[in-house]
């Protein structure tokens, strides 16, 4: 009798374990000739985002896939609603570039529950709320921490480890802003002669970057290095510096991340000293990863894009290939 009860209990535990495994497993994706996929963009107010969207649209057209495209217009709440709309439309898969790390994690779980696999591109979410390989398939993008480190290391070498820095941060709560700051701070910690005078968000915006730079420049006229988390804020900072009679590239070094053509041209012109690329052309890699997933191939939790760097020695040569 006791043995029979133990067998029943063991069977029940086995069923529970199977149910849990099924609950935590990623949704399957059938192998088909064409797919209906969603792309939830965070905003379209700068060249980087426009280039990313164009790449996603061009690749979908090339493959003959149906693309459901939405623009969150800089609102995490709208992006959540956009993803829910895609779930209601029963798309085969969702490509998501999360506006912020925390607010977008729960809707990824909603997609998973609906049987729709999610692929994160460019930005990640809070891993304590949703995990790659368990709640969404993968993150495709750049190593943001390494980007910040590369900028910091270039400054340390160029200035012999002595710099008074103003940092223009990206959108508060976004993974690139968080990680680009962390990577940079890691280098600063090893160089006591490099001091961050002020660090404030410019929301990845050219005009906001200009406004913030104007204010910080008045408070910290001793600045000799500006580190912007993206090209747009760097270009805004240059406008503020020039309006104040400062000379970008001469008495103030300006550095950024992204590598758009306008910024690379400013490297050629000597106004930006150094740029780490963060290439926005995600279409080919995003769709090929989806096809690999549907074919049953193992997908890594992170797929890191190779990124170049632009400086005075190579900017003119690489300019035509910048987005």
Automatic annotation (TrEMBL):
Compartments it resides in: Cell envelope
Database matches in Pfam families: Peripla_BP_4
Superkingdom: Bacteria
InterPro entries the UniProt entry points to: Peripla_BP_I, SBP_2_dom
UniProt entry tagged with the keyword Signal: yes
Coiled coil: none
Annotated keywords: Signal
Residues of the signal peptide: 1-21
Record domain Periplasmic binding protein: where: 37-298
Primary localization class, coarse: other
Family listed: Belongs to the bacterial solute-binding protein 2 family.
Name by which UniProt lists this protein: Sugar ABC transporter substrate-binding protein
């Amino acid at each position: 009798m006791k043995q029979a009860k133990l067998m029943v209990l063991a069977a029940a535990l086995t069923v529970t374990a199977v149910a849990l495994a099924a609950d935590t497993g990623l949704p399957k994706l059938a192998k088909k000739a064409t797919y209906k996929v969603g792309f939830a963009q965070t905003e379209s107010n700068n060249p980087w985002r426009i280039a990313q969207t164009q790449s996603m649209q061009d690749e979908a057209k090339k493959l003959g896939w149906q693309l459901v495209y939405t623009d969150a217009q800089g609102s995490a709440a709208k992006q959540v609603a956009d993803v829910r709309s895609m779930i209601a439309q029963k798309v085969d898969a969702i490509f998501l570039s999360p506006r912020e790390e925390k607010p977008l994690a729960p809707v990824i779980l909603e997609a998973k529950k609906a049987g729709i696999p999610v692929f994160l591109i460019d930005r990640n979410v809070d891993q304590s709320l949703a995990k790659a390989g368990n709640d969404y398939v993968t993150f495709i993008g750049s190593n943001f921490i390494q980007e910040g480190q590369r900028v910091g290391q270039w400054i340390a070498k160029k200035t012999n480890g002595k710099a008074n820095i103003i940092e223009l941060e990206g959108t508060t709560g976004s993974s690139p802003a968080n990680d680009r700051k962390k990577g940079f701070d890691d280098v600063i910690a090893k160089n006591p002669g490099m001091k961050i005078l002020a660090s404030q968000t410019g929301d990845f915006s050219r005009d906001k970057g200009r406004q913030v730079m104007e204010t910080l420049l008045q408070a910290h006229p001793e600045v000799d290095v500006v580190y912007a988390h993206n090209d747009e804020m760097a270009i805004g900072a240059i406008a503020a510096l020039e309006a104040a009679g400062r000379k970008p590239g001469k008495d103030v070094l300006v550095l950024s991340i992204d590598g758009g053509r306008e910024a690379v041209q400013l490297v050629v012109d000597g106004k930006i000293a150094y740029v780490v690329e963060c290439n926005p052309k995600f279409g080919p890699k995003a769709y090929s990863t989806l096809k690999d997933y549907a074919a049953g191939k193992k997908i890594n939790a992170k797929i890191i894009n190779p990124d170049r760097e632009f400086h005075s020695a190579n900017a003119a040569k690489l300019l035509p290939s910048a987005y």
